[in-house]
Write a structure and sequence with these properties.
It is an enzyme of class 4 (lyase). GO terms for molecular function: L-serine ammonia-lyase activity; pyridoxal phosphate binding; threonine deaminase activity; threonine synthase activity. This protein has 351 residues and is α/β, with parallel strands linked by helices. It folds into two domains: 7-56 and 159-328, Rossmann fold (3-Layer(aba) Sandwich); 61-157, 3-Layer(aba) Sandwich (Rossmann fold), CATH 3.40.50. The protein contains 15 helices and ten strands.
């Protein structure tokens, strides 16, 4: 009876729900804030990881989806639709099941990780692979929801942002104040918008004494906000953030400027280096896009932009199991042995 109840029940007074709202939840949120020892040593700061891969469908999207599906149910929707690079669709598919709704998902053909496709399939979503990128999928999803009886659950739906802001609440509740710096990967820019909203709400009500500087990182091949222009053909191995025209672009700029932060880019090589460091040295397995936050922190630290002694939170947005190809690629093949202890001990270097 002491289980975490999900973000709507835990933060009910700060979310747009009423007593009669039919809450659709998988008990999302309440995710671990894990001290990062190696990152703290490297930066001279107190670095924490907000491990959002611990959510029910393996990404932070569940925080927004519990709100979006709850609201859709309240409004009597029978079907929901989203465009996705994979995690939103996995989450929408799962929460639609809980709500007894049909889900339709539009994904860029050939550009979503296998685990995410598996989730949408097993939850019974109607999946269309669109011959285009995420931005094309979102255009199509908007058009369909405008003209047909289907509710849009992308983060352009403002209740998604409301749900996602609860991650900032959890961090302040845990640390006793906001961190000095909060670092995030940026794709469609909904999450940086949501965290900033959460932090400013808590600061405005005096629950936090300060607000953090917001640092966002895009993948170099998909960095429209850094470039200041739409990227027509975005590319990166971090498929979750392969987005060339973020829907919440203006809100991301506001979060950056109001917080005194910045939005920069990291290369795929830097992303993979951080991905491996997180797994091999912090014990936290994330998907490549999630490692963009940590890659960005390391890049900033190496450039001398991180003063020691600060409290820093990096959100790692999705579980490594979503996209295990990158864990296996380039790793040595495990050695095969017979059922023989002496041989096994020798191969393990124990003998
Ligand atoms: N990290 C992961 C693992 C994601 O799946 C996403 C976005 C982001 C970071 C970026 O967050 O878009 O709010 O700036 N994934 C969306 C999707 C686009 O369809 O699953 P953002």
């Amino acid at each position: 009876t002491h289980q975490w109840r999900g973000i709507i029940e835990e933060y009910r007074d700060r979310l747009p729900v009423s007593d009669s709202t039919p809450v659709v939840t998988l008990r999302e949120g309440g995710t671990p804030l894990v001290p990062a020892q190696v990152l703290s040593e490297r930066t001279g700061c107190e670095v924490h990881l907000k491990v959002e891969g611990a959510n029910p469908t393996g990404s932070f999207k569940d925080r927004g989806m519990t709100m979006a599906i709850t609201r859709a149910k309240e409004e009597g929707a029978k079907a929901v639709i989203c465009a996705s690079t994979g995690n939103t669709s996995a989450s929408a598919a799962a929460y639609a099941v809980r709500a007894g709704m049909v889900s339709a998902v539009l994904v860029p053909r050939g550009k979503i990780a296998l685990g995410k496709m598996g989730q949408a399939l097993v939850h019974g979503a109607k999946i269309l692979q669109v011959d285009g990128n995420f931005d094309d999928c979102l255009t199509l999803a908007r058009e369909l929801s405008d003209n047909y009886p289907v509710a849009l659950v992308n983060s352009v739906n403002p209740v998604r942002i409301e749900g996602q802001k609860t991650a900032a609440f959890e961090i302040v509740d845990m640390l006793g104040d906001a961190p000095d710096i909060h670092v995030l990967p940026v794709g469609n820019a909904g999450n940086i918008t949501a965290y900033w909203k959460g932090y400013t709400e808590y600061a405005g009500d005096g629950i936090a004494a300060k607000s953090p500087r917001m640092w966002g990182f895009q993948a170099s091949g998909s960095a429209p906000i850094v470039r200041g222009e739409v990227v027509k053909d975005p590319s990166t191995i971090a498929t979750a953030i392969r987005i060339g025209n973020p829907a919440s672009w203006q809100y991301a700029l506001a979060a950056r400027d109001e917080s005194g932060g910045f939005i920069d880019e990291v290369t795929d090589r830097e992303i993979l280096r951080a991905y491996r460091l997180l797994a091999a040295q912090e014990g936290v397995f994330v998907e490549p896009a999630s490692a963009a936050s940590v890659a960005g922190l390391l890049k900033a630290a190496e450039a001398g932009k991180v003063d020691p002694g600060q409290t820093i939170v990096c959100t790692v947005t999705g579980n490594g199991l979503k996209d295990p190809d990158w864990a296996v690629a380039g790793a040595p093949q495990p050695v095969t042995v017979p059922v023989d202890a002496a041989t096994a001990a020798e191969r393990l270097g124990l003998a």
